[in-house]
Design a protein that fits this description.
The chain is mostly helical. Helix content is 50%, strand content 6%. It is built from 12 helices and 6 strands. The strands form 2 sheets. The chain has a 3-stranded antiparallel beta sheet. The chain has a 3-stranded antiparallel beta sheet with strand order 3-4-5, with helices on one face. Helix 8 runs parallel beside helix 10. The structure holds glycine. Glycine binds next to loops.
C-alpha cells in the first residue's frame, strides 16, 4: 500500500509513548488470558464484570478479529506462540468458506490475509485466496454488490438485494488476493462493491446508512435504512459510520482512487464534528437519550484506527496532522477511560476494552468487551507506536 513518506512519521513520543506502550502490554496480557480460557472456541463478547467470554465454535462473523489479534501480537512481540495460536484458530475458520455471507470478507481478511501480509504465513495465504474466490463469486451484477447473503441474519429475508456497509472493509481480502497473483477480476469486484456502497449509503453530509435494499434484477433502490440503529430510517448507527469509514480508507489505500479518498474524508469529518467532546461515541449518534445511553467503544476504536490510516494517506501535511491528532486523541480517551484498569483497584481482567455495544435493539452485549473493538484498538496502538509500519 502507498504511504506518502512525509506523512509516515507519526510515532508517539513522551507521555503518549509510555501510555500506549503500557496499553499494548495490557492488551497482550488480555490476549494470553483469553487464549487460555477459550480452548478451541472463538471469543465474541465478554461480560463487563468478570470478563467471561461468550464464545462460538466457528467465530460467527467475528472470528477473523480474534485471529487478527494474534497476528498483531506476533507482530508486536515476535513470540512464535502467537503464530501457533493463530494457525490453529485459522484452520478452524475453514468451515466458513462455503457460507453465503458477505462478512466472510472480514473473516478471511483479518484472519487469513493479515497472516500472509505480516508473517508470510502459508496457511494465511492459502485460506485467504480461497476466501477471496468464494466471496467474489457471490457478486450480483444487477445489485452491483456482494449481497448480505443467506447466512448473514438478513433482516428482510431478501438476502440477494440487501446489503450492509458492515462488509465493506472485507473487500481488502479481494484487493490483497488480486495483488498476490489472483484473478484481477477480484479487484474489480471490490471496487464495484465499495463504490456502490458510497453511492447508496452515504448521505450528502457524509453520514452513512447501514443498509440498502435494491431490486437485484435492475439495481433500483428500494430502501436505505439502519436496521441496527436507533431509528431505522433516519439515525446514524455508530458502527455504520465506522465500518464505512474504515472501508473507504482501505479502498483508497489499495487503489489510490480519489473517489474513495473523498468519501473517506466526508465520513471522517462528519464523525469528528459529531462525536462527543470526550471522543468516545454513543452507540447511535441520534439516540435522544444521549448522554444517558450506551457508548460503543468498538465503533470508536475502529474510527481511531481508520483516522490514523487516513492521516498516512493524506494529501498534505495539514490534513495528515488533523487526522493523526484526531486518531491519537480517541486512542488516549479509550486507553485512559475504557481499557481496564480504568480506576485504582479495578478488579476486572487487565486489558479489556469495556463498553462496546453489539446489538442495542436486541439487548445483546450492550456494554461489553467486543472482539473486533479489541482488534482495532490494538492495531491503532501498534500504528501509533511505530510497531506496525504497513497499512492493513
Ligand atoms: N454486523 C456487524 C456489526 O454488528 O457491526
Amino acid at each position: 500500500m502507498s504511504c506518502a513518506p512525509e506523512h509516515c512519521e507519526q510515532v508517539a513520543e513522551g507521555g503518549d509513548a509510555a501510555l500506549f506502550a503500557d496499553a499494548i502490554r495490557r492488551m497482550l496480557r488480555r490476549i494470553d488470558v483469553t487464549a487460555a480460557a477459550i480452548g478451541t472456541q472463538f471469543p465474541l463478547s465478554a461480560d463487563p464484570v468478570g470478563g467471561v467470554w461468550m464464545t462460538a465454535p466457528d467465530g460467527r462473523w467475528t472470528g477473523g478479529f480474534w485471529v487478527g489479534q494474534l497476528w498483531l501480537a506476533l507482530q508486536a512481540t515476535a513470540d512464535s506462540k502467537y503464530r501457533a495460536l493463530a494457525e490453529a484458530a485459522l484452520a478452524r475458520l475453514e468451515v466458513r468458506l462455503a457460507r453465503d455471507n458477505v462478512l466472510n470478507g472480514l473473516v478471511f481478511y483479518y484472519g487469513a490475509a493479515l497472516g500472509a501480509q505480516l508473517d508470510r504465513n502459508s496457511l494465511g495465504a492459502s485460506l485467504g485466496r480461497r476466501g477471496a474466490a468464494a466471496l467474489a463469486a457471490r457478486f450480483v451484477q444487477g445489485s452491483g454488490f456482494i449481497p448480505l447473503g443467506h447466512d448473514s441474519g438478513s433482516l428482510t429475508g431478501d438476502a440477494n438485494g440487501e446489503t450492509n456497509i458492515d462488509g465493506v472493509p472485507g473487500m481488502g481480502l479481494l484487493w490483497w488476493a488480486a495483488r498476490e497473483g489472483g484473478d484481477p477480476r477480484l479487484a474489480e469486484v471490490a471496487r464495484k462493491h465499495v463504490r456502490r456502497h458510497i453511492e447508496l449509503c452515504q448521505r450528502p453530509d457524509g453520514s452513512l446508512y447501514q443498509a440498502a435494499l435494491v431490486d437485484p434484477d435492475n439495481g433500483a433502490t428500494l430502501r436505505l435504512y439502519s436496521p441496527r440503529g436507533f431509528a431505522a430510517d433516519t439515525s446514524t448507527w455508530a458502527r455504520a459510520q465506522s465500518w464505512g469509514l474504515m472501508g473507504f480508507v482501505q479502498a483508497y489505500a489499495w487503489t489510490q482512487d480519489r473517489f474513495f479518498f473523498d468519501a473517506a474524508v466526508r465520513a471522517a469529518d462528519w464523525w469528528i464534528a459529531k462525536a462527543p467532546a470526550d471522543g468516545v461515541a454513543f452507540w447511535d449518534f441520534d439516540d435522544p437519550a444521549i448522554p444517558a445511553t450506551e457508548r460503543d467503544t468498538s465503533a470508536t476504536a475502529m474510527t481511531a484506527c481508520a483516522l490514523l490510516k487516513l492521516a498516512r494517506l493524506a494529501r498534505d501535511a495539514a490534513q495528515a496532522d488533523k487526522y493523526a491528532q484526531a486518531g491519537a486523541q480517541i486512542v488516549r480517551a479509550l486507553v485512559g477511560n475504557y481499557l481496564v484498569p480504568t480506576h485504582p483497584g479495578d478488579p476486572r481482567p487487565r486489558g479489556m476494552l469495556t463498553e462496546g455495544c453489539w446489538q442495542r435493539n436486541q439487548g445483546m452485549s450492550t456494554c461489553h468487551e467486543l472482539v473486533w473493538g479489541d482488534y482495532y484498538l490494538l492495531e491503532a496502538l501498534l500504528l501509533l507506536t511505530g510497531r506496525l509500519a504497513r497499512l492493513l
